[in-house]
Amino acid sequence: MADEAIPFDPFARFRLATRARIGLGRSGDALPSRHLLSFQLAHALARDAVNGSVDWDGLTAGLPDGVETVAVHSAAPDRQTYLRRPDLGRRLEAESLGRLSHAGWDLALVVADGLSAAAVQAWAPATAIEILTRLKDWKVAPIVLARQARVALGDHVGERLGARMVAVLIGERPGLSVADSLGIYLTYAPRPGCRDAERNCISNIHADGLSPAQAAEKLVWLAREGMRRKLTGVGLKEETPSTSIAGKEVPAIPNDA
Amino acid sequence: MSQFATTAGGERHVFPDLKTVLACASPRRSGDELAGIAAASDVRRVAARMVLADLPLTVFLDHPLVPYEEDEVTRLIVDGHDARAFAPVAHMTVGQFRDWLLSYAATPDVLTALAPGLTPEMAAAVSKLMRNIDLVTVASKCRVVTAFRTTIGLPGCLSSRLQPNHPTDDPLGIAASTLDGLLFGIGDAVIGINPASDNLDACMTLIRMQDEVRRRFDIPTQSCVLTHVTNTIAAIERGAPVDLVFQSIAGTEAANRGFGIDLAILAEARQAALELRRGTVGDNVMYFETGQGSALSADAHHGVDQQTIEARAYGVARAFAPLLVNTVVGFIGPEYLYDAKQITRAGLEDHFCGKLLGVPMGVDVCYTNHAEADQDDMDVLMTLLGTAGVNFLIAVPGADDVMLNYQSLGYHDVLTLRHLLGRRPAPEFEAWLSRMGMLDETGRLPPQGPHAGSVTRLLGNGA
């Protein structure tokens, strides 16, 4: 209304309860320009996260001295192939196989680009460090940095290394509200052909979700318990005290974000 | 059955069986390539269509693509085939059938009478010979009308599902998205929540909350919590006010098993919902979602192309007299439908096949952030579907589903399309919008100012 200095917002009391794009107003029947552009910016961030590549050198530089890494590539040569052929993203290319040598590791850590380079860049180093700090009594393999990789690539890596468990830190599919969310998949006795039901997942590691330390805490609980009981997946998850972020306050997107 | 062959482009093309003909005749899509069944070249694709065009429609009755003995969906299709309804087209080839569907002889009444005589495989086959505009033209002649508290699919109407999802099922957050949608005239097909939790108590809380909102504002529509069918049966047993039973379905017995269902459990759920007698203007109580690629992703496609398997899901749906069926066309991701061209084509095929088979077809016009698509592409598909007479479209606030992390249409989009094409909401719901003072003298729904009566009634005073 023209006579109101601050426009009255009938949705005011709802905005803290949801980050859904409610009460946007109308230009005729369409979106007002600023909301149109806000949507396009969010989509652009998500698209860039999917199509971007991880700065692996920068990521490695962010790890403490003494933490070894080994770079591998999936059988998907590029992003376009990766998106069309999930089967190739789950396998190692021939040359990479030679870089992984069999030894009696307790845990293999794989950092995989997945569907969000931004997530890996932002959260993978800190999360890996938090995990290593909590597992000093375990024999952990050099961190495997995997390009064009999906979760199940970890099965091949774990088997090749002879690791009893593999944890894959991977960029999750970006949404409009969060483009840089990291997930972790933990698998006991990794070998090609593992089913998803044999894995435990910790999702939503990002600025408004789990912190790297919180995620590492959950992962290490699952890893120690899984190692003791010689399994991961559905059988383990049911007894985990709290692996979801349900109940966490969900921040609202500012009206003009 | 013996192999099929033709000469095209100076080359002999041989196809070992019927399902290879269909797979090769399909427009190019990443899911069929992933399955290793797509045509290896464009010429081979056209050669397969030439073979297909000359096959009699009866070939699909005589040679099931998925074995009758192994698959209850095949048995449902074959045993339920209505030979009398089929008789008018029984002598046709697939190519002749396309010509006839486009002819003036194929009127809405004729097509309605024909539907029980068609099998999903026939619908899929003829769709592969059609251009996009053919799919739009023929679908626009098909009428499938269903009802519960609103009547959906009437000529000149475009209904919508209001989808107020929330990542933690927060009641206030869901209410906010619901009320926002109502102020755009959305929700006459259903107000349907995808719950974040499949926990039965949590689902029952949502079912009761939705019923309370509907009764408080006396809204003539139906609500649904899209949880597993076994959950909904349990909720009904425990006295929850269930309007519609939801379930995701697919086109083979094995893929349905992957969803944890079979035909018997769908029948049981329908019976339980019917006994509640909650519909006022009709008793269509089922709501199904489908989507190309689901059978392949469950490794349950039997070497059949994803579009034909999708049409078989409509064969499942129509056996349960649903109120609503929609394909969630772009949700599955780029390994099945790579880009906007493939999503658009699939959306039109799904709508066409569903309508031709007599299914009350809607579409979730949507995409994920790893597909080569954006909101401009959704504008194109929704406009095509609007002209094709789609029964309903799904809409979320600002096109952004904050729970499922994908983009659908926004409330604005459905309203735009209604006004652009002169389509109206379901009549019972339109009367409610009118009682709420939300429509102007021409029947349009103009912007509701912050102090409008409708806003104050639905949202309170903002305190």
TrEMBL record, chain A:
<dbReference type="GO" id="GO:0031471">
    <property type="term" value="C:ethanolamine degradation polyhedral organelle"/>
</dbReference>
<comment type="subunit">
    <text>The basic unit is a heterodimer which dimerizes to form tetramers. The heterotetramers trimerize; 6 large subunits form a core ring with 6 small subunits projecting outwards.</text>
</comment>
<keyword id="KW-0846">Cobalamin</keyword>
<dbReference type="InterPro" id="IPR009246">
    <property type="entry name" value="EutC"/>
</dbReference>
<feature type="binding site">
    <location>
        <position position="172"/>
    </location>
    <ligand>
        <name>adenosylcob(III)alamin</name>
    </ligand>
</feature>
<comment type="pathway">
    <text>Amine and polyamine degradation; ethanolamine degradation.</text>
</comment>
<dbReference type="GO" id="GO:0009350">
    <property type="term" value="C:ethanolamine ammonia-lyase complex"/>
</dbReference>
<dbReference type="GO" id="GO:0046336">
    <property type="term" value="P:ethanolamine catabolic process"/>
</dbReference>
<keyword id="KW-1283">Bacterial microcompartment</keyword>
<dbReference type="GO" id="GO:0008851">
    <property type="term" value="F:ethanolamine ammonia-lyase activity"/>
</dbReference>
<keyword id="KW-0456">Lyase</keyword>
<keyword id="KW-0170">Cobalt</keyword>
<comment type="function">
    <text>Catalyzes the deamination of various vicinal amino-alcohols to oxo compounds. Allows this organism to utilize ethanolamine as the sole source of nitrogen and carbon in the presence of external vitamin B12.</text>
</comment>
<protein>
    <recommendedName>
        <fullName>Ethanolamine ammonia-lyase small subunit</fullName>
        <ecNumber>4.3.1.7</ecNumber>
    </recommendedName>
</protein>
<dbReference type="Pfam" id="PF05985">
    <property type="entry name" value="EutC"/>
</dbReference>
<comment type="similarity">
    <text>Belongs to the EutC family.</text>
</comment>
<dbReference type="InterPro" id="IPR042251">
    <property type="entry name" value="EutC_C"/>
</dbReference>
<feature type="binding site">
    <location>
        <position position="201"/>
    </location>
    <ligand>
        <name>adenosylcob(III)alamin</name>
    </ligand>
</feature>
<feature type="binding site">
    <location>
        <position position="151"/>
    </location>
    <ligand>
        <name>adenosylcob(III)alamin</name>
    </ligand>
</feature>
<dbReference type="GO" id="GO:0006520">
    <property type="term" value="P:amino acid metabolic process"/>
</dbReference>
<dbReference type="GO" id="GO:0031419">
    <property type="term" value="F:cobalamin binding"/>
</dbReference>
<dbReference type="InterPro" id="IPR042255">
    <property type="entry name" value="EutC_N"/>
</dbReference>
UniProtKB/TrEMBL annotation, chain B:
<feature type="binding site">
    <location>
        <position position="247"/>
    </location>
    <ligand>
        <name>adenosylcob(III)alamin</name>
    </ligand>
</feature>
<comment type="subunit">
    <text>The basic unit is a heterodimer which dimerizes to form tetramers. The heterotetramers trimerize; 6 large subunits form a core ring with 6 small subunits projecting outwards.</text>
</comment>
<feature type="binding site">
    <location>
        <position position="403"/>
    </location>
    <ligand>
        <name>adenosylcob(III)alamin</name>
    </ligand>
</feature>
<feature type="binding site">
    <location>
        <position position="297"/>
    </location>
    <ligand>
        <name>adenosylcob(III)alamin</name>
    </ligand>
</feature>
<comment type="pathway">
    <text>Amine and polyamine degradation; ethanolamine degradation.</text>
</comment>
<dbReference type="InterPro" id="IPR013785">
    <property type="entry name" value="Aldolase_TIM"/>
</dbReference>
<dbReference type="GO" id="GO:0006520">
    <property type="term" value="P:amino acid metabolic process"/>
</dbReference>
<dbReference type="InterPro" id="IPR044941">
    <property type="entry name" value="EutB_N_sf"/>
</dbReference>
<keyword id="KW-0846">Cobalamin</keyword>
<feature type="binding site">
    <location>
        <begin position="161"/>
        <end position="163"/>
    </location>
    <ligand>
        <name>substrate</name>
    </ligand>
</feature>
<keyword id="KW-0456">Lyase</keyword>
<comment type="function">
    <text>Catalyzes the deamination of various vicinal amino-alcohols to oxo compounds. Allows this organism to utilize ethanolamine as the sole source of nitrogen and carbon in the presence of vitamin B12.</text>
</comment>
<dbReference type="Pfam" id="PF06751">
    <property type="entry name" value="EutB"/>
</dbReference>
<feature type="binding site">
    <location>
        <position position="289"/>
    </location>
    <ligand>
        <name>substrate</name>
    </ligand>
</feature>
<feature type="binding site">
    <location>
        <position position="195"/>
    </location>
    <ligand>
        <name>adenosylcob(III)alamin</name>
    </ligand>
</feature>
<comment type="similarity">
    <text>Belongs to the EutB family.</text>
</comment>
<feature type="binding site">
    <location>
        <position position="364"/>
    </location>
    <ligand>
        <name>substrate</name>
    </ligand>
</feature>
<dbReference type="GO" id="GO:0046336">
    <property type="term" value="P:ethanolamine catabolic process"/>
</dbReference>
<dbReference type="GO" id="GO:0005829">
    <property type="term" value="C:cytosol"/>
</dbReference>
<keyword id="KW-1283">Bacterial microcompartment</keyword>
<dbReference type="InterPro" id="IPR044939">
    <property type="entry name" value="EutB_dom_2_sf"/>
</dbReference>
<dbReference type="GO" id="GO:0031419">
    <property type="term" value="F:cobalamin binding"/>
</dbReference>
